[in-house]
Amino acid sequence: MANLDICVRFGRRVQRERMKRNLKQIDVSVATGMTRSTISQIENGRQEVGIRTIEKLAKALEMPMVSLFRNL
Q: 38 near 11, Cβ under 8 Å?
């Protein structure tokens, strides 16, 4: 998986963490203030994210920001 683009790897991590918590994309959308479409684009590695967005995602997933990057 290390040969995949960082945005794809990050997006898959977000998706895995969301699914582990039994959350739907709309749940994360509401918690972050982003559209469901944006959450989908992030999870599919089609949108590069900034530090503020990463913080919002981590809060919505109730996890430390660093955990979203561990072993990417």
A: no
